[in-house]
Here is the input.
Amino acid sequence: MSYKMDKGQKAVLGDQRLSSELMESRDGVQEPCIWSSPEGGKDEAELGKRIFCNRSLNMRNIIAVGFDMDYTLAQYKPETFEKLAYEGTIEKLVSNLGYPEELLGWTFNWKYMVRGLVVDKKRGNILKMDRHKYVKVAYHGFRELTKEEKVGTYGNTLIRDAFDEPDYALIDTLFSLAEAYLFSQLVDFMDKNPGRVPARVDYARMYKDVRSAVDMCHRDGTLKQMVAKDPIKYINEDKSIVPLLKMLRDSRRATFLVTNSLWDYTNIVMNFLCESRTLDACNFDWLQYFDVVITGSGKPGFFHEESNANLFEVEPESGKLINTDNGTPMAQVGNSSPSITLKKQNERCRVFQGGTVRHLHKLLSIESSSHVLYVGDHIYGDILRSKKVLGWRTMLVVPELEAEVKLLWELRDSRKALQLMRSDRDHIEDQIHRLRWSLDFEDLKADQKQEKSALVEDLELFNGFFEQLQRDQVRIKHQQAQRECHQKFHKVWGQLMKTGYQNSRFAHQVERFACLYTSQVSNLSLYSPNKYYRPGEDFMPHEFNILPM
Here is the structure.
């Protein structure tokens, strides 16, 4: 079944494929946006596994493909992993930072927060903004702010707020969802129990305490120890990862891994992903799928070539760090020769810790950064820096996208109805405007003026109320329908890629910095390794306007 909206905003249903629809481009010019039906009669579920293209990318020009690990190759289960992070953070707040013990009885709703939100640290608010940084949805704790409160707080200044650090924090990674939810709980708790939190703690200090507690959990290894003991409880299995890596290597491309996790944890996770091995059966077979592995990379600082971070080689068996000179083994003090040798053909790849992108380019003999494709999940830590600073080609992994794209498909008829209601609403407004314009500004003769004046009186007396009533009915019906549609994506925050008719701030970042984006890294295996990705060959979730708010 096809669906098309022409310039007159009339919906046309057909029996074949979904055809192009007029959407607003980045320059405000109407351009066709293609929504094609699943290729070759494939199940509609595969819509969620497509790769979407913002900028042309010819894979024949790519000589090296790199990956982040956490939330890219390794997709964590939010219902268990984020819950673990949430509980660990609360324990640190109570035991280390003096928060009341009753927090230990709190529970975590892992579905409540979404990526792309902004934390207002000073006011205790969580915000969702559009691409122009207008606040469209706002909550203080778990209380929704009224339109008047939003305008009074965020829309009543002569200078536009940048909504950046230090007063704001971006929820731009799935790791941040638990701490954002906990912050909202603490805001509610402090408002209702002002004397129960530590002395001199305001909203901003409370957020800082949450961040400190999260960092404590990472430093003492609480989270990673639990994951290492039972990885299947916390990480989704993906049998497509090894075939994907083999496909890339068979196409004569180098593959590399750059992760902020240290070697011990990286080895455990990659054993589980590539060989389904657990802690007591780990080995190093998975290294055969990579040319270089860099752990403890310290992204996003890793992407700055001027950084002076040292590169150490990791001895896989012991985890021992060995000094290198730009990746070349160095003789240790008291020895006349290096303790390790360079990788030979058919040997497993070398593992490093730290360093910078300059070291990586040398290790892989990369002469042009545009020949590198890097796949990650963090819009700032992985994608923005690698694209903006280096000029690497980028692919963003957005796990939430799979469900969102499927729902976009399912709601295509509801979207048509919403657009028709919007068209009716606009039509009534235009009729009223043209009538008033005619009465106020047309040059009429005396008898015409008298006749017109009488008509105006009649319209105001007999038609005015009816027109207002009709206009209000259309507006209310439209608002109710769009609210229902909004809640089908997320009951609180709505569609990930939209805020009203505008792209959300998250979608704007995706559009600016991700050459490609998709729901899972393994979706790459569904396409030829030599594919030429082009914009406009498919509908784009960040352009597809289904939900006005």
Remarks:
- The longest strand covers residues 135-140.
- The two ends are 27 Å apart (CA to CA).
- Residues 174 and 378 are 8 Å apart (CA to CA).
